[in-house]
Structures are given as structure tokens and as C-alpha cells.
Specification:
This protein is α+β, with helices and mostly antiparallel strands. The chain contains 3 helices and 3 strands, in the order βββααα.
Amino acid sequence: MSVPIKGLPPNAKEKVRYRFVVDVGAHPSTGKRRQVTRTFCTLREAKGGYAHIMHRRYEAAAVPFDARSLDDWLDALQRSSMSHAAPALPSRSTVLRANS
């Protein structure tokens, strides 16, 4: 994957700066596209900044936010495990007594 970092023309102090623009997804309420622009003094800093933003972007996409509290989550887990529980099997001693 190529890194979209552009070298800017030298400024008045003859310094070359590096800039990139990253699409960070849609705004949650408006649905409009959001972009982040960052400018750095060195190419190394720009690559590090780009990697940091991309990591945060993919991390947010991979793990959706859940607003439930821990108690609510545990209650839901307990209810789901109770409804999917296997029927109780007879114990070994009950089976041995029945066969005797």
C-alpha cells in the first residue's frame, strides 16, 4: 500500500514540509465524509503520523462501541446461556442404579 504523503514546495525559510490527507470515515450524526490533514517537518515524522492515524481508524472500525454497562452485559450473557443450556443429564450413579 502506498503512503499518500506529498512533499510541499520549500517555504520562505527553504524548508520542505510533508503533508497527507486521510479519510477517517463518516460523521456519526450527519453521515458526511470526514478527512484529517496533517503536516510534518520530516518524512519520517509524516510516516509515523500516518501510521498512527490509520491504526486508530482500523481499530475503531474493528471494535464497535457498546454503550451497555458491565452489569447489563453480564445479565444478557447469563440470560443467553440459560436459554441455550443443554438439558440436564442424569448422573452416573443414577444410571448405574437403573441398570442394576
